[in-house]
């Protein structure tokens, strides 16, 4: 049985490897294997390409994410005023405390608190009864002495005639003439007494000596006032115009004098934000000496104050314009940075990278900086994003001062597109 089976298996048949059909099946299997290998190689190449493309895109994204986001502003050419800043105190041009010059009872206050008054306006009245009586008494005394003088003059003329005709003595005539002179002097004294009484009576009516504004009253009606009282009745303050007094360093004295001589030393009183002008005035007085303890000089500026924007006792920031820089190169003040080699700025390069440029500042405040360096008006400086910024850094501009213009242009394009759609 085993021999039979071995022979059958060894006998060439249709399915045996040695037969024609066996050889065909073997070739088919070889071809199929090779095709599977080629397919696997192709799939491997496609996968490798996909991975390479993904890696390339991720690199580009990383490079894009590595760009520094900044804000830029254009370089400008402008006329820049040269100013001096100080802190000043507003002072009234005139301040008067209205007081009584006579003793008496206050019977009337003729003003309202906070009222605008003119020079000569009645502020208060003191009971004038005593002073009116003194005035009347002086007038009566003068009338009496005037009548005595008239009688003495008649007698003197009579005695002169009698003495001339030897019917009277010369001594009597001379005595009568002396009496006339005495009464004439008395009459002049009476006139002075009347003037004094009239003045005292006038003091009972208290008037404003200046144009100004009354404050809060310092005394009430019914109180007895004395000429020696220091409190007074009311304070009158002149508010139009008024002074602003401030100090500047002695190093600025020459600039200040030059500006005053040229007549263009304008003084601006600024609000607490140090930029909003409350009122514009003119430089009026430079003190005649420098304080040796502080090295400063006191300056006064006069303000017309038509809207009462300034108030006596108020502290204000003062900015004095002493000169103007013509056609100066200016950049926003935040654009100027400081380093070991001095001031520098970053410019937006044509290839979108940061370009470092060393500069020299002529003047700088919280808003703009004036540069002595040569910069083109078409260049743009970086004003923010300095934390990760260095020379050559790739930049992504988030905003700029020119952005509104571009937005307006885009708005115009959108409007034109909308109108075209309607047509």
Q: Brief overview, please?
A:
This protein has 423 residues and is of the alpha+beta class. The protein folds into four domains: 2-50; 70-78 and 329-409, conserved putative lor/sdh protein from methanococcus maripaludis s2 fold; 81-93 and 238-326, Elongation Factor Tu (Ef-tu), domain 3; 98-236, OB fold (Dihydrolipoamide Acetyltransferase, E2P) (Beta Barrel), CATH 2.40.50.100.
Structure in words:
There is one protein chain. 17% of the residues are buried. The protein starts with a helix and ends with a helix. It is built from 6 helices and 22 strands. A hairpin with a 5-residue loop joins strand 17 (342-348) and strand 18. Helix 3 packs antiparallel against helix 4. The protein has 4 domains: 2-50; 70-78 and 329-409, conserved putative lor/sdh protein from methanococcus maripaludis s2 fold, CATH 2.40.420; 81-93 and 238-326, Beta Barrel (Elongation Factor Tu (Ef-tu), domain 3), CATH 2.40.30.170; 98-236, RNA polymerase II/Efflux pump adaptor protein, barrel-sandwich hybrid domain (OB fold (Dihydrolipoamide Acetyltransferase, E2P)), CATH 2.40.50.100. The radius of gyration is 53 Å and the shape is rod-shaped. The strands form 5 sheets. It has a 6-stranded antiparallel β-barrel with strand order 2-11-14-13-12-15. The model is unreliable at 1-18 and 402-423 (pLDDT under 50). The chain has helices at residues 2-10, 20-65, 129-164, 170-203, 253-262, 403-422; strands at residues 68-74, 76-92, 95-98, 104-109, 116-117, 122-126, 205-207, 212-214, 224-225, 234-237, 242-249, 266-270, 277-286, 296-303, 315-332, 337-339, 342-348, 354-358, 361-364, 368-371, 380-384, 395-400. It is of the alpha+beta class and 423 residues long.
